[in-house]
Amino acid sequence: MSSAAKKLVNWTPTDIKADMLAKYPPKVARKRASQILINEALGNETPEISANVRTIPGIITMRGCTYAGCKGVILGPTRDIVNITHGPIGCGFYSWLTRRNQTDASAEGAENFMPYCFSTDMQDQDIIFGGEKKLQAAIQEAYDLFHPKAIAIFATCPVGLIGDDIHAVARKMKAKFGDCNVFAFSCEGYKGVSQSAGHHIANNKIFSEVVGENDAEKPGQFKINLLGEYNIGGDGFEIDRILKKCGITNISTFSGNSTYDQFASAHKADLSAVMCHRSINYVADMLETKFGIPWIKVNFIGAKSTAKSLRKIAEYFGDPGLTARVEEVIAEEMPAVEAVISDVLPRTTGKTAMLFVGGSRAHHYQDLFAEMGMKTLAAGYEFAHRDDYEGRHVIPNLKVDADSRNIEEIEVEADEKRYAPRKTSEEMARLEAAGLKFKEYEGLIPDMDHQTLVIDDLNQYEAEKLVEIVKPDIFCAGVKEKFSIQKLGIPMKQLHSYDSGGPYAGFQGAVNFYHEIDRLVNSKVWSYMKAPWQESPELSATYVWE
């Protein structure tokens, strides 16, 4: 295919896939071909994609490591747990406030340790002689300085290699303090395929060590847990504003703007609402198994999706007053949304987008682009499993590989004293018959247009090649891709941490997103961007001899 043909109006998904694979060695190309899917989903037949497999050595992946998923994503947004990285200082710094998780510690007596970067700062001698004594001293110092409710320890790669027993140290210090929970995570960066393994390790430990500790009753009539929302750019604040306005009480968020007590009280909710399916679906399952709390999939990204999710929650509770209040809130919020969308729609209709973000975001944000009349040409996740792409119906057929066995599977049974089904089997059956689906996620692929591209674990080369061929109006991904895409003259929206923007969730978030995308896709500055080698293909220089 000529270089001119690659930039044509008449490109086809088959051409693009072939061109992206052309420079790979045959063995690599075969593996990547199974992760690049042309969406041909028709009816109930969803095509199969290869996902949750290790990145091929030598390819510059966009993924994060297991440690980053555990410490940075799940525990990073929790403000009153002291999180100590046991390892070199670079690991601690990498996972410190890089996702712009916001929190509100304005209440009297509230603690906020998020601005601190806690690390044992392991040196060469610690690697040689072991770092357990240094870790113990760090835990003691943190306790003496802050007297927190909990201290969490995170293992990095060298810790796993030298064999420090962080769990033994945690048990020893917990027994010593008495009033401070100390627990550890074996989340060495190499332990899993991606950061997804870290999410699983983190949530398992939080569930086994913290959830259920606080049996005090929580005020509120309609109590939910919001799972898989990380309050990036203030998204969680906007969702909480809407829920409160509707009269819905959010007991616990996993884990945006979260606290130790929220985790400890999660079993007091009557419904779990899951945002990011990949990072948290197993916690929703465990809450149901142990305490009887059912769960539904929600999406607060996009005004229409927000309204739909609020109605789903109201339908579950079945209270006429709540249902009426939800409709009132939607009616109050939508005029501002509709006013902005009517303004931007003439300028954004027909524009194109690509989204390669985390696990669920590349799905959720397509709703916002659709509201703007924009078409998503390609999408994919960094750390998804097949069920995130194809739907949960494939879970029984997934094979457990060696990497998955690295993640501890905790056995959960119904709590003898506190297990209480929130609905009778008859009530659940009636709700399902009426269309409310429990424990259900249909995945990314069925919601994407026919003949669009779905790409798992997109890498740097493929991202640039995709943009070169298709030239979308906007590319959405993470910070690793940001500057390389911008140098190609395409606006790049960072949807891992929103750069300096947000919130984008809920009704007000949708308004923010409409304005920002309108500015990005209609700015002329991108057409003027030229890299130095484009301006001067042959650079010249002279030698200076001394």
UniProtKB/TrEMBL annotation:
Q: Where is the Nitrogenase/oxidoreductase component domain?
A: 65-521
Swiss-Prot/TrEMBL catalytic activity: N2 + 8 reduced [2Fe-2S]-[ferredoxin] + 16 ATP + 16 H2O = H2 + 8 oxidized [2Fe-2S]-[ferredoxin] + 2 NH4(+) + 16 ADP + 16 phosphate + 6 H(+)
Q: Which InterPro entries match?
A: Nase/OxRdtase_comp1 (IPR000510), Nase_comp1_asu (IPR010143), Nase_comp1_CS (IPR000318), Nase_Mo-Fe_asu (IPR005972)
One protein family per Pfam? Oxidored_nitro
- What NCBIfam families does this protein's entry cite? N2-ase-Ialpha, nifD
What family classification does the UniProt entry report for this protein?
Belongs to the NifD/NifK/NifE/NifN family.
What is the stated purpose of this protein?
Answer: This molybdenum-iron protein is part of the nitrogenase complex that catalyzes the key enzymatic reactions in nitrogen fixation.
What protein am I looking at? Answer: Nitrogenase protein alpha chain
